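User: Sequence in, structure out. Go.
Assistant: Echoing your sequence, followed by the structure tokens.
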Amino acid sequence: MPSPAGPRVRPAAESDLAALVRLRDDAARWMLSRGITGQWRPGELDEDHFRRIMTRGEVWLAEAGGRPVGAWELWWEDEDAWGAQPPVAGYVHRLMVDRAAAAPGTGRLLLSAAERRVAEAGRTRVRLDCLAGNAQLNAYYVDAGYRVVGRKEGKPQPGGPPKSFTLLEKRLG
């Protein structure tokens, strides 16, 4: 069980790759079991995916009770969704929570940790994209203080066909 302050968050390491794949696949299965289709599929991403992200961005892992309960990727650019941009933002990708092990509210705590990391890097905005057809997830991010700033049609996807996304942004500070 996480402490009242939430799970412990740290940069993911090579030894965490299998746990990251499991978290992603479990999150994909959870979505599918609730009729959320078109977003993530189990088996879509492997250890090499997370290893590649670690070489050009950051992957963060949250642990509670000695067990991984969530993770996210933090990129410093995202031209596929946002085009060329000045270096003012961090881009959150693949925010995932272990629904069987994490306390309610863990996703919001992880999002806040990502926002703190972006601020520590001296950037003033956090950006993310969300599958345009997932109204519940879009509302989740709006409720977390993000605002819709655009839409990206046909964004390339690792391991799958291009998809359409809502672009969301939060100003920090």
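User: And one key feature?
Assistant: The chain has a mean pLDDT of 92.
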